[in-house]
Amino acid sequence: xxxxxxxxxxxxxxxxxxxxxxxxxxxxxxxxxxxxxxxxxxxxxxxxxxxxxxxxxxxxxxxxxxxxxxxxxxxxxxxxxxxxxxxxxxxxxxxxxxxxxxxxxxxxxxxxxxxxxxxxxxxxxxxxxxxxxxxxxxxxxxxxxxxxxxxxxxxxxxxxxxxxxxxxxxxxxxxxxxxxxxxxxx
Length: 186
Fold this sequence. Notes:
Layout lengths: L1 H10 L7 H10 L2 E4 L10 E4 L2 E2 L7 H4 L2 H6 L1 H15 L11 H5 L7 E4 L2 H14 L6 H17 L12 E4 L5 H11 L1
Parallel strand pairs: 4-5
Antiparallel strand pairs: 1-2, 2-3
């Protein structure tokens, strides 16, 4: 959702580093996340003001600014409200860096799914290659390291595990192994 706000700012010609106008856009953005409607390896649809932006939010221009945008208190407030709206529909698996601590602290099951930054970079490179791109591993790694630093150090809703979350470090695990581990907790 923060990627969608960042994309919205870029589309509207608003500097993503300018907090007040980005916050104003976040407050009027209508963002929804639903089951995938297209079979193109997506795990979900992301809609911004009715437009499917699932892949657009993964573009480099968005990647470069999403962490700073996610630190803006007004943006976080607007997105938390939208995330709660989605979460309260029920029967949802919600992914995010503050879901269990801020957005839905009352969630019945909380999983803090982690992996080393090197493993996440490797996975992102494979994802991008699967979409026909030729990413540079070192650049992807540096971007993730920067995002982690920003997200962990932000004053509003920093990246951290909820005290009651089950932690899974997924390095070396297949998707099925992760699913099986989560199922064992249920």
